[in-house]
Design brief:
Largest sheet: 15 strands, mixed
Distance between the termini: 20 Å
Strand order of the largest sheet: 8-7-6-5-4-3-2-1-15-14-13-12-11-10-9
Organism: Paracoccus marinaquae
Number of domains: 1
Order of helices and strands: EEEEEEEEEHEEEEEE
Strand content: over 45%
Protein name: Glycolipid-binding domain-containing protein
Shape: globular
Length: 183
């Protein structure tokens, strides 16, 4: 993994883009980006900043922006006991979940993919920010590396699966029906 990488995605299911940067600094991975898209209820723009340890396990995240005219401000942190907190309140059912999955961007797949770069892949339990209602929920996921280099991705809820194409930095470059890398 290089010390820093940038990517620009175009959203496929509705108008939108996301620009994301990944860098390693002072023993931590920093994933930062800005997404703008047409939400079901109007324009949306959200910036995000996520910090992970060297092991790619998410420690904290900050999100801010507006979705359909409503302000969004979240400070998410995983506690020492494995529980997740959003703006200080514990998220129900979040104890022991490792990854953070932000539904509005493919950026957070990067974290799990880099953590699971072992031969074959593995399962992941994530705290998921659902783009449908903007609430944090548990989400069980699986990533399996295929012989052709793509990753088979499945999420228990809402019973979703697809094949992801990924670059050398762990960024998704093709997420069928949802995202593609812009050149």
């Amino acid at each position: 993994m290089a010390a820093g990488a940038l990517i620009l995605w175009r959203r496929l299911d509705r108008p939108g883009h996301d620009a994301c940067a990944l860098r390693f600094e002072a023993g931590e991975w920093h994933l930062e980006g800005a997404a703008a898209w047409r939400d079901r209820n109007g324009p949306a723009q959200v910036t995000y900043s996520i910090i992970c340890g060297e092991d790619w396990q998410t420690r904290s995240a900050r999100l801010s922006g507006r979705v359909a005219g409503q302000g969004l401000s979240l400070s998410i942190r995983r506690g020492a006991g494995g529980e997740w907190r959003a703006n200080g309140a514990e998220v129900p059912g979040s104890h022991g979940l490792i990854d953070l999955d932000l539904a509005f961007t493919p950026a957070t797949n990067t974290l799990a993919l880099n953590r699971l770069k072992v031969p074959g892949g593995g399962d992941s339990a994530a705290i998921w920010l659902d783009e449908g209602d903007w609430r944090l929920k548990p989400l069980h996921q699986g990533y399996r590396r295929q012989a052709d280099g793509r990753w088979h991705y499945r999420a228990a809820e809402p019973g979703f699966e697809t094949f992801l194409t990924v670059n050398r930095h762990g960024f998704v470059t093709d997420y069928p029906e949802f995202w593609t890398q812009e050149d």
